[in-house]
Amino acid sequence: MSEKLNTIVGKQNDFATRLMGGGSVVSGAGAGTKLTLTPPAGQRVRLTHLSTGAAIFLGDMSVKFGSTTVYTGNIFGSTPDGGASVSFSVGSYQPYVGASPPAGNYEWWTGEVDEVFTLVKNGADPSQTFYYGYQFGE
Amino acid sequence: MQKLKNGKWEEVEEKDLLDGDNYRKPIGGKMVDGVLVGNGWEQKTYQTPPPDPDPFKMVSMAELGELLPDEVLIELEDFKSTNTVPAPIRQAAARILLRINTNIKVDVFNGKFTNLLNNLVTHTSLTIEQATVISNTLKA
Fold first, then answer.
1. A98 touches chain B (CB under 8 A)
2. What are the pLDDT digits (tens) for A106-125?
3. What's the ipTM?
4. Cβ atoms of B73 and B135 closer than 8 Å
5. What is the DSSP string of B61-101?
């Protein structure tokens, strides 16, 4: 592979999975960091799933990679219609009953090398369970 | 796993965690001379999972705006025994008929009635447009 082509097919266009994990978290009613994913040294975090249960809305959440907030909105697994409601999810979504397409659903989010992923609850919305999946990779 | 205590990480078992504890578990890595190296971390705040809401089916619906007393007794059927999701039964626009025949106490002023309605949506794949209590007998 030429040097120029090698720089084009760089780390942002390729991701080799080394580890994977996931689970669920009960958010609690208070604000604060609810999930932190620290990749092994030299690796990145790829968030492959973030959602709530059907018809469950978890409001005012921020997704951060390192110090950068990449998204602030409401996790709504069955109705991630984005737009004015800023409802979102990551990964596969459940069949939804709303009229809007899942414009707020994203396939995955990937951080930079050694960037720590955090999910922050900004307000005092009621406690809900959210579900997450991730990979660590190079 | 480890728990954050006074700014330091200490080894603990999950059974020792309390609500609000900040804890983490190592992901990946390998043992070198008895020490885990090259791992990542998954960190979150421990919270006791809420109890599962009682599953139910309702038989009749009316306007949700009806004033409700402090305690309401709703007769519900044990939905788990059917192990199936019923097909939507739409009798007329904005009305849904379901069956209730088991007594379960519901605290309507503590968010549980909302959770009960959410659970109905989850288990039946229906959209609730109107709802009401069909039995409002007060009990001591």
1. no
2. 889 999 999 999 999 998 88
3. 0.77
4. yes
5. ---TTS---SSEEEE---GGGT-SPPPP-EEETTEE-----
Whose CA is closest to B71, among B1, B3, B2, B140? B140
Whether the CB-CB separation of A123 and A57 falls below 8 Å is answered with no
> CB B42 to CB A40 under 8 A?
no
CA distance A36 to chain B (A): 5
Residues 37-96 of A with CB under 8 A from B: 37-41, 43, 53-56
Looking at mean pLDDT, say which of A77-86, A103-112, B90-99 comes out highest.
Answer: A103-112
The C-alpha of A29 sits at a distance from chain B's nearest C-alpha, in angstroms, of 10
- Nearest CA to A60 among A128, A134, A125, A137? A125
H/E stretch holding B113 reads: helix B112-124
Cβ pair B46, B23 in contact under 8 A: yes
Give the global pTM: 0.61
CA angle A118, A28, A120 (to 5 degrees): 20
